[in-house]
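Worked Example 4.2. Consider the chain below.
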Amino acid sequence: MDSDKLHTEKPKDIIRRMTRDAKDIKNLQVEQDLEQFSFFSNFSQPVVDEFVQHFRENGGKFFPFPKDSIYQALAQFLQKQKYDSLVALTPNIHGFLEKRGIPFTNVLQSNEPADAVITFSDMLVACSGSVGFTPRTILYPSIRNLAKDIIVMSRTRCVFANHADAMAYQLSLGENAENGIVEFVTPKLILDEKGQPIYTPQDPRIFVFMVQDDL
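Applying the procedure from the previous section yields the following structure tokens:
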């Protein structure tokens, strides 16, 4: 799959590929809901296409949406997953979860990994398909060992060509920067003896729900 594939694929081919990418979500209805609300379009920035390619190749789950439907899709995803423990690390999403009656906490309970955490990242790296996290956005030193599923909210404007560009952005925040403390995590696809994916808090499944700024 080359970097221009998302520009040349026909809509039916894109839908088929997105369907295959979502098959290991544990509830089939979740997959159908995501397909219903996800917006299948070409990105205007090749750097976003490159991130999507590498992120998926590494085992990440990527779903793009226009701004007016991303929260509806996210709510249906969380409701169907029925996580026993969901930790919302991003404060501005608390109201959204409360309004829809989705149970959550804002901290890990007794230092035990949760089923899932939901957070925000403003540093996605195209060349590696990595997601950047800082204590400013996740409130913990590392995203690892927090949960088996990591749900990341982001935007197309948060995609950088390489790690150097992402770090330059981080340092440009001045007083709001985390002294350059950034953890870049790349999805890792680990299979068991039967060829089924294995996800653990150390090597979590990573979902990216992305707002398409160009829509």
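Residues 46-57 form the longest helix (12 residues). The two ends are 25 Å apart (CA to CA). Compare this with Example 4.1 before moving on.
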